[in-house]
Design a protein that fits this description.
Blueprint lengths: L2 E5 L8 E5 L9 E11 L1 H8 L8 E2 L3 E9 L11 E5 L9 E5 L4 E2 L6 H19 L9 E4 L5 H12 L3 E6 L2 H9 L4 E4 L5 H8 L5 E6 L6 H7 E9 L11 H6 L4 E3 L10 H16 L7 E6 L3 H9 L6 E5 L1
Parallel strand pairs: 9-10, 9-12, 10-11, 12-13, 13-14, 15-16
Antiparallel strand pairs: 1-2, 1-4, 3-5, 3-7, 3-16, 5-6, 6-8
Helix pairs in contact: 2-3, 2-8, 5-6
C-alpha cells in the first residue's frame, strides 16, 4: 500500500503524519511516479509552519527521484520506465508513489543515481541560477556565501571554482569550515566568533565583495550588506533564521546596494531554461567536476525526526528521505 507524509494543521514537526494513500491512474498530462529517494529541504518547513500557506490537509515536499510507472494521455517527453527527477512540483513528494503533472519531470542521465538526484535537483538548480543567471560574474571575482557547508553551499563552492571565482564562506563550526574548504571554499569565517563584515574587508583589501549569497536571512542581513562593495548585490535566496527586515535607506548608506529575493520557480518556469540549467548541472556532476554530498539519510516515515534535525542546524551537505 502506498503511503505519504501529510499534515492537517500547521506547527512543529510533530504535525507530520504517515498515512496510507490510494494512488490512482494518471489523467491527461499526468504521470504516476514510484519514488526511490526524496529530497529534504529547509523550504519544506515553511509549508509545515504556515509561512508558505497551503490548503489543509496537505502533503509535503517538492523534490524526489524515481521511476515513471504510468503516463496519462498527451504525455510525450517521458515514458513508462524512465528514470526521472523533479523539484518545484505541487506538494506531495514525501510519498512512496504519487500521481503528478508530467511537466515537472526532468529525465535523469544514467550516470546519476536516485539518491544523488534527490539530494541535488533543488540545490543544484538553485546553485545553477545563482551563479549563471543572477549576476554577471567574471573570473577573479570574490563572493560571500553564507551556510557554506550546507547542500547549496557545497555545490556553489565547487561550481564557483570552475568559474574562476574566490569564495568566502560563513559556517558555524570548525568541522563545517573544514568541510566547506574541502569543497572549494577559499576562506571560511566562523560567524558566531568573528565579525563577518570586518573579515570580508580584510580578505578583500577593504573593497568588499560584488555579490553576497544569503540563505540565512534575518540573522545575517546586516553583515551581508556591510560586506558588499559599492553598488553590490545582496541575494536573499533563503530565510532559515526568519525574514530579514529591509530598510531602503540602509541600501543607500552602504553604497547604493541592490537586493533581490529570488525563487527557483521563476528560474525554471520556462522548460527550455530549466533544461539548460539542469543540463549544465548534470554534466558537471556526471563528469565528477561537482560532487554531491549526502550528509544525512532518514527513512521517510521518520520525517518528524528529519525536520527536527534540520531545524536544529545539525545537518551538513544534502539530506534525503528513503521510502
Amino acid at each position: 500500500m502506498a503511503y505519504a507524509i501529510r499534515f492537517h494543521e500547521t506547527g512543529g514537526p510533530e504535525v507530520l503524519r504517515r498515512e496510507q494513500v490510494t494512488v490512482g491512474a494518471p489523467g491527461p498530462g499526468e504521470v504516476r511516479v514510484r519514488h526511490e529517494a526524496v529530497g529534504l529541504n529547509f523550504a519544506d518547513t515553511y509549508f509545515r509552519t504556515g509561512l508558505y500557506p497551503a490548503p489543509l490537509p496537505a502533503g509535503i515536499g517538492v523534490e524526489a527521484a524515481g521511476v515513471v510507472e504510468a503516463v496519462g494521455q498527451g504525455v510525450t517527453h517521458v515514458a513508462e520506465g524512465d528514470r526521472v527527477t523533479y523539484t518545484g512540483s505541487p506538494l506531495g513528494a514525501y510519498s512512496s508513489e504519487r500521481v503528478m503533472p508530467a511537466d515537472s519531470l526532468i529525465r535523469l542521465p544514467d550516470g546519476i543515481d536516485f539518491e544523488t538526484a534527490a539530494a541535488m535537483t533543488m540545490r543544484g538548480l538553485t546553485a545553477s541560477y545563482l551563479l549563471r543567471r543572477i549576476h554577471p560574474l567574471k573570473p577573479g571575482d570574490t563572493i560571500l556565501l553564507h551556510a557554506a557547508a550546507g547542500g547549496v553551499g557545497l555545490i556553489v563552492s565547487q561550481w564557483a571554482k570552475l568559474l574562476g571565482l574566490t569564495v568566502i564562506g560563513t559556517v558555524s563550526t570548525e568541522e563545517k569550515a573544514a568541510l566547506a574548504r574541502a569543497h572549494g571554499c577559499d576562506h571560511t569565517i566562523l560567524y558566531r566568533q568573528e565579525n563577518v563584515a570586518e573579515r570580508v574587508r580584510q580578505l578583500t583589501d577593504g573593497a568588499g565583495v560584488p555579490l553576497v549569497l544569503d540563505s540565512v536571512g534575518k540573522d545575517t542581513v546586516a553583515g551581508s550588506m556591510a560586506s558588499l562593495r559599492r553598488r553590490g548585490l545582496l541575494v536573499c535566496f533563503g530565510t532559515s533564521s526568519g525574514v530579514p527586515p529591509l530598510d531602503a535607506m540602509k541600501l543607500v548608506q552602504h553604497g547604493s546596494l541592490f537586493v533581490t529575493r529570488p525563487a527557483l520557480a521563476d528560474y525554471i518556469a520556462d522548460p527550455a531554461e530549466r533544461d539548460d540549467l539542469a543540463g549544465e548541472l548534470f554534466g558537471h556532476v556526471a563528469a565528477g567536476r561537482i560532487g554531491i554530498r549526502v550528509g544525512q539519510r532518514f527513512a521517510l516515515e521518520d520525517a518528524v525526526t528529519a525536520h527536527r534535525t534540520l531545524e536544529a542546524g545539525r545537518t551538513t551537505g544534502s539530506s534525503i528521505l528513503i521510502p
